[in-house]
Amino acid sequence: MEWENEKIAAFRSALIDWYEANKRVLPWRENTDPYRIWVSEIMLQQTKVDTVMPYFERFMTWFPTMQDFADAPEERILKAWEGLGYYSRVRNLQAAMKVVVAEHNGVVPSDLEGILALKGVGPYTAGAVLSIAYERAEPAVDGNVMRVISRVLEIDDDIMKQKTRKKFEAALYDLIDPEKPGEFNQGLMEIGALVCTPKKPMCLVCPLQEFCEAHQVGKEEEYPVKIKKTKVKKVFLTSAIVQTGSDQFVIEQRSDTGLLANLWQFPTVDQLENREAMKLAFLQQYGLELELGAEPITHVKHIFSHLVWEVEVFVAQAITAQPSELKLKTVTKAEMEQLAFPVPYQKMWQAFQKGETVQ
Per the database record, which ranges form the HhH-GPD domain (predicted)? Predict the structure, then answer.
């Protein structure tokens, strides 16, 4: 950082004044309880604010205290998280809070080393909780913050690299307001969400315009630099909503490790060329002899961070059922409502309910 102290002070003032005048009313901003802030920050990872709000409010109704959450059975916490995705986040969150309850008397650590020792807590979450809840001058570097600061300081390093995040953190340790670090960090997040957007940033109304080096040369949309190398794998599947009666459905619990661990789904096999091959696959994999519907009732495409599912969905009647040793269960609609299903299977169920198809 080559800015003089006066410029840094002016930057802090412009950002915090704007934030205090323009911040959105959000449920996790009602107070600075570290439990609420921690939950909100985990929910907000890779998820939009509007999506998170009803989840957060329901979560706080179900688990008003850290003790309530730490004591909750896994099935309940997965149901609370249903639809947010990345279910390892809520499992890690509960594991970490159990440690806080057991080893820290229910008080979230207020030091960087202590909070980083908790499962699932990285530098961003640590910085957000420490700065907002405890007014500690720790930066919180997320996507919005990197976009804003990359433009302000014309940082052209690839933001996908870990060493680049360290560069942002170093710059922010110089910039962060030691008197109001929580407002400073939230101000950067808010600017990134509302003004300094990925495309067509609203520079004319940005309180940081005079400090923004990229704006001065008309290159704000060239930042941040992001070189994407990850190849996304496509997986083609066939799922069956299997009925054994008018209100009896066969579902499967996924493995307790790996993708979508322990969540429930409809029986699913690899997509095959014809109906007879699919029926044989369901028989071999599940011990289910099925009468498949004539046509798929829907096609579901779901994008994970590293792969894409393309799923054809059929309604089926079970002719005979000799379940294999997998975690199969027969449930009613009411019972199904109490179980946690991944988003693609929720979409399948919604398509089924619209037609209430019975083969």
Answer: 43-194
